[in-house]
Amino acid sequence: MAVTGRKYGNDRDGSHVVLVPSDGMRSSVQLGTVSRRFETGWSCLLTAGHGAVQGVKRRVALVLALGGIAGLFFASAASAHWVGTWSASPSDASPFVPSLSDQTVRMVVAPHFGGGWVRVHLSNRFGTSPVVLDRVEIALRAGGPALVPGSRRAVRFGGRRVVRIPTGADVVSDAVRLRFAAFQDLAVSVYVAGSIAHPTEHLVTRQTSYLTPRGSGDHASDRIGEAFTGLTAAGGYSTGWYFLDGIDVRAARNVGAVVAVGDSITDGFESNENALTESPAGLNQNGRWPDDLARRLLRAHRQLSVLNAGISGNRVLSGNPLFGPSALARLQRDVVDEAGVRDVIVLEGINDIGLSPSASPSSIIGGLKRIVLRLRAAHLHVLLGTLTPARGTPLTSYGGVTANEQREQVNHWIRSQHMVQVVDFDKAVRDPRHPDRLSPRYDDGDHLHLSLAGYRAMAAAVDLAELR
Questions:
Q1: Helix, strand or coil, per DSSP, at residue 304
Q2: Closest CA to 408 of 438, 423, 382, 387
Q3: Are 34 and 19 in contact (CB under 8 A)?
Q4: 0.70 exceeded by the pTM?
């Protein structure tokens, strides 16, 4: 969609962004997503396509339309900025949900940093046509699909209730006043009046969210939640987060964010013995290792949020319709553009070994080098995580002799390179007597993924002094 100077999304202070290249030329550009990261220079990243990053940054002129209470609040822009408090990278186009039609989804998320003003990010990244969302609301969750009385807030986009998201694009809302604490559950309700086929989602959420029946109408404002009789996915235990891919909080300038980039281990997946079927163990407990890292930072009184950019099945080098674009392809949108990001922890590569076609250790190492260089070019502080063991898993492409040798080659490079600091996740969770296997204390039973105790051990392996 070619546009010239069109209002789209919001700037760092909740004001509208007018897209005008800083060279003054009003040339048409392909519009995809407004950057979340307005740290210096107030720039917008313009991308297009199904998650494909065009990689072009332009400085833009910002027109501030402030007034009334909002104007008074945002006048203190020099002492506050937006920081991501929760994120979930879009993974796929809902293979288990053919469509949403005249119904409401209510998604439950746990922010990692509290505050009093938020903005909501929505995505149509994998859509094949524009989508129209007729009402979006955010509230504090009381339990199940019920909301805390008096906490419901309307979410608007450029002052409008209805938002249209172009194909392949992401949007960000106006600022919304809502006070909440870290790990206090928020509920984001989205009403779809028409029909949307295969909505963009994050599949493995380890969280229960809710859905009204097809044709039941608008229930975004319902407080009790009695109309939410279904779950937002069929099969498994996780229920999808549809359209919702991030929430930012207004915070002091000294507050930043850590982004954890990874696969199912960062996604917090827990399985049974076959490594493919999701287990109910740990469901709704926010027990992913990035969650536990956020708790450690809170206890240490560090001014850092933690954002989860893990996608189950994700690879460094190759994309997949179910497991998302490769880490390299999604790096800009899922990491660099996050609001307030300072540090990045990268833990990827085991699926490049285990999924067909398998990549060689040298190819994986080359991909990790490219990730590090791109993140450092964006002035981000990077830490590389070693790949955790998988010997004994029934998926021999992950845990067989050859796969373990390949994993050890990648880990040897990670430990010996001098580009960035290392988080030795492998050492933290392996069995000291059998270092090619997970410690029984940390194994969820499939010998590939970890239990809640294992994810806590991974979070404990991160040296907080290494985070900026």
A1: strand
A2: 387
A3: no
A4: yes
**Residues 271, 50: contact at Cβ < 8 Å?**
no
User: From CA 207, how far away is CA 76, in angstroms rounded?
Assistant: 36
Question: Do residues 418 and 327 share a domain?
Answer: yes
Helix, coil or strand: residue 443: strand
**Distance between CA 401 and CA 461 in Å, rounded?**
26
* Regions of the chain where pLDDT drops below 50: 1-34, 38-75, 234
Could you give the 3-state DSSP secondary structure of residue 247? strand
100 phi and psi, to 5 degrees? -110, 135
For the stretch 74-105, pLDDT in tens is: 435 568 999 999 999 999 998 887 799 999 99
SS3 (DSSP) at 364: helix
Q: Which domain holds residue 298?
A: 254-466
Find tokens 């963009």 and name the residue. Answer: 200
362 found inside a domain:
yes
| 140 token code pair | 């504090």
Predicted pLDDT at 235: 54
The two tokens of residue 467 are 């985070």
How far CA 408 is from CA of 25, 313, 390, in Å, comes to: 52, 20, 11
Burial class (CB in 10 A: 0-12, 13-18, 19+), 246: buried
The answer to whether 64 and 15 are in contact (CB under 8 A) is: yes
Maximal C-alpha separation, the chain: 66
Give how many domains the chain has, as a whole number.
3
CA distance 443 to 449: 7
